[in-house]
Amino acid sequence: METIADPVPRHREVIVKVLASSINIDDIHVAEGTFYGGIPIGARPRPNRPVTPGSDFAGIVVGIGDGVRSIHIGEPVFGVQVPYRASGAWAELCAVDERWLTTKPEKLSFCTAAACGVSGLVAFSAIHALELRAGMRIVILGATGGIGGMAVQLAARTGAEVIGVCGAAHAERAYRLGCSLVIDYHGDPWDRTLRSRGEERIDRVLDVVGGRDNEEAGRRMLGTDGIFVTVVGPERFIGDRALSWVEVLAVLAHVGYRIVSSRIRGPRYVLAGPGPGGGNKLAAVARAATAGVLPPIDSTVPFELAPLRQALRRAAAHQNDGRIVIRMDKAA
Questions:
Q1: DSSP states of 65-96 as a string?
Q2: Alpha-carbon distance values, 164 to 175, 181, 280 (Å)
């Protein structure tokens, strides 16, 4: 923990008193320099230039810079701190571009809202790319995590039939979220399990886990008019290790080739994410959260060094069962 100078808002930025945040695995990867395998992004930590991590947040606006049009002092908000910069959300105060936050729904606690930003934006981006319609059948890999859990709920609300792939210990949660069938990823490959049940074709696949094996399984189960959406790519849990530049370029080349070639032969391959203007979907995330579409929450920890260290170790080892929320203030 360090005491640093209060942030000063730049053009279109507001100062948020952060009451709650949450841990995304990318927060750890950015700090370690392994985001998407090691692609340089944001300010790199140095002994003489500490970096404050944290992308999800919820809090109260306490200051406004020039050019701010949509947010007012005293307003409760939640959102995402992007791009990953030196002034992240794991702090008492944070300077945030107004285009990456929205008003917090009154019925949501600050702790719940702080888990919704990244998960909601990625889930909405993926659901949009899937072009789901009522009656379609979709497989969601990683169906009970922060992103996958919200995607299951959003997919089910379109009228699609959702098949979730997750650990057996989380099967009950997957059913509660809206899955009609749950497959244990510790067993046979999910496509083989479906074929053993007489299933020959599905319409869509959403991959929140990654891995070429999942891509190949999706290609076997989808028809030429199907869509495979990934928020990760061909490297399973990309970011868990630093890739060489050759490996990073190989991943990017693979993704580029699949996107282009799949447009010709099908099934279509899409790499989804919020993108530069993704903050404009936060209002939709807020409406969905008000209607009950929420990410699974693993636990809440205080903004203290020892419990944070333990929580970060659990998140880095993929041992958390949903989002870990950081409570900055007891009032959250």
A1: -TT--S--TT-EEEEE--S--SB-SSSSEEEE
A2: 8, 6, 28
Alpha-carbon distances of 23 from 75, 127, 168, 186, 324, rounded to whole Å: 24, 23, 24, 25, 6
Q: Mark whether 244 and 179 lie in a shared domain.
A: yes
Q: Kindly report the pTM of this predicted structure.
A: 0.92
**Phi/psi class of residue 164: alpha, beta or left (left: φ > 0; alpha: ψ in -120 to 50)?**
beta
- Judge whether 128 and 204 are in contact, CB under 8 Å: no
Rounded to a whole number, what is the largest CA-CA distance in the chain? 62
What are the backbone dihedrals phi and psi of residue 241, each rounded to the nearest 5 degrees, phi first?
-140, 155
Asked if the structure places residue 44 within a domain, the reply is yes
Residues 73 and 133 in one domain: no
Residue 214 belongs to a domain with what CATH number? 3.40.50.720
Per-residue pLDDT of 164-199, as tens digits, reads: 999 999 999 999 999 999 999 988 999 999 999 999
**Does 96 share its domain with 191?**
no
Element of type H or E holding 325: strand 323-327
Domain range for 108: 13-116+295-327
Element (H, E) at 204: strand 202-207
